[in-house]
Design goal:
mainly alpha; 77% helix; globular
């Protein structure tokens, strides 16, 4: 009878955990470009909406979000669907907790922004961004990146501060949160990816 060693030493367990973390980190660092693109999209939409309101086109200002967020969401879903099919072909199994957190935050934002937007009043910006803050914290903790955790906590503070800022400036607040929560972390992730792979 052939016996094999099946007991893990504590060091074996730590090494295995570290390998999983490194693999996940590499995957999400590579996706840093997408995080930057989302941040840039929200920044453009927020600044555009503010400028439209300032120039007397407040009744059309919502279109700044429609022409940026919906195409970005569709493109992102198509790309992720293609990656998902590739992962199935490569027999990768398991649930991507970070991906699920971001997908849920994105779906909640779309519902909040396009379906239930009239229900939130002055708390609209706060409601929109808090799920993303949670997803970003999950990402920072999973990837062991303190800078992402710090940016997430800072974004929570800005999101709650929006409750005390006049409504007219909320689109600028949204652009600021996008810079802190998406654009800068995207740069960090992409830079780390390039360093790791010496690109």
């Amino acid at each position: 009878m052939d016996t094999q060693k099946t007991d893990f030493t504590p060091q074996d367990s730590l090494d295995m955990i570290q390998r999983v973390i490194d693999k996940t980190r590499s995957k999400y660092e590579e996706n840093g470009v997408w995080v930057m693109i989302w941040g840039l999209g929200v920044m453009i939409a927020g600044i555009s909406q503010y400028l439209m309101i300032r120039n007397g086109m407040g009744n059309l200002a919502g279109y700044a979000w429609v022409v940026t967020m919906i195409p970005l969401f569709i493109i992102n879903m198509v790309v992720n669907f293609q990656k998902g099919r590739q992962n199935v072909r490569e027999n990768r199994k398991g649930i991507d907790a970070i991906g699920v957190a971001w997908l849920m935050a994105g779906c909640m934002a779309m519902l909040s922004g396009f379906i239930f937007n009239s229900k939130f009043g002055a708390s609209f910006t706060t409601v929109m961004f808090l799920p993303f803050c949670v997803a970003a914290v999950v990402t920072g903790l999973s990837l062991q990146k303190p800078a992402l955790i710090f940016m997430s906590v800072l974004s929570v503070g800005i999101s709650y501060a929006a409750l005390y800022i006049p409504w007219m400036y909320h689109s600028l607040v949204a652009a600021g949160i996008a810079c802190v929560l998406f654009f800068i972390p995207g740069i960090i992730l992409w830079t780390d990816y390039k360093k790791r792979h010496r690109v």
